[in-house]
Specification:
CATH architecture of the largest domain: 3-Layer(aba) Sandwich
Structural class: alpha/beta
Oligomer: single chain
Strand order of the largest sheet: 2-1-6-5-8
Number of strands: 10
Bound molecules: adenine
Helix content: 40-55%
CATH class of the largest domain: Alpha Beta
Shape: elongated
Radius of gyration: 23 Å
Largest sheet: 5 strands, parallel
Length: about 250
């Protein structure tokens, strides 16, 4: 996979692309990330990338020309990328979107900045994406969030297949089960007995129940939706029936 990132703050990506799992994915060549400074595509002497908004109002708007020039340069050859623009009012990023994006060969992320981006940039954008209902100073952190969620799904990036297996819950939006590591008792807090049993089937069942219990408590509407869509297994439905009875008797 290749990802082009268009930004006015390329330095922000240095650590992100060097450290940890993402750093490894990049250095091993599983993912190629090309951070491009939009300023390099400005044509004037002062390399200006923003300007005041037509019609007045506060702040500055990213100009279209440098972004289009960067886009033209990067797409002159090869497959056209799927282009994302980070914006606080875009479509909400979620795991389902991450899975879809991880299957693309080529992505481009344009990091919004300042008060906004000239509307005409949207002519080259496939999807405007927000990472949540809050306003950040720019699209660089959202771009990193999107890349992190996408890159870890690229085949071969996560060595441990188990981590991906845990995502089988996430795929449907179910909440994760609790995790523990050594010691078995810490400051009087004990690890649940079943996890020490070595009994894989029982452990799997316990985890499933924990995941369903948490989802039922915090996102009951999701459980209803998964039921309607027939996305729960017989075993899961049975566990849910028991949990729901338990809740009823507890009042
Ligand atoms: N730019 C500023 N805030 C943002 C957000 N929440 N998501 C995506 N891009 C943004």
């Amino acid at each position: 996979m290749r990802i082009d990132v268009l930004t006015v703050l390329p330095g922000l990506f240095d650590c992100f692309l060097r450290e940890g799992i993402i750093g490894k994915a990049v250095s091993s060549g599983k993912v190629e990330v090309n951070v491009v400074n939009i300023r390099d595509f400005a044509t004037d002497k002062h390399r200006v990338v923003d300007d005041v908004p037509y019609g007045g109002g506060p702040g500055m708007v990213l100009k279209p020309e440098p972004i289009f020039r960067a886009y033209d340069h990067l797409t002159a050859e090869g497959e056209k990328p799927f282009v994302i623009l980070t914006e606080p009012w875009g479509e909400r990023f979620n795991q389902e979107m991450a899975v879809k994006l991880s299957k693309k060969n080529r992505l481009m992320i344009i990091c919004g900045r300042y008060e906004g981006v000239d509307e005409r940039v949207k002519a080259i954008v496939d999807r405007e994406v927000s990472i949540g209902d809050y306003v950040l100073t720019g699209g660089e952190l959202p771009a990193m969030v999107i890349m992190d969620a996408v890159i870890r799904l690229v085949p071969g990036v996560l060595g441990n297949e188990e981590s991906l297996r845990a995502d089988s819950f996430m795929d449907r939006g179910l909440l994760g089960y609790p995790n523990y590591t050594r010691p078995a008792e810490f400051r009087g807090m004990k690890v649940p007995e079943v996890l020490l049993s070595g009994h894989h089937k029982k452990i799997e069942l316990w985890r499933k129940e924990q995941s369903l219990r948490k989802t039922l408590e915090r996102k009951p509407e999701l459980i209803e939706k998964l039921k309607r869509e027939g996305k729960l297994t017989e075993e899961e439905l049975k566990i849910l029936e028991r949990l729901e009875k338990e809740r009823e008797s507890e009042g």
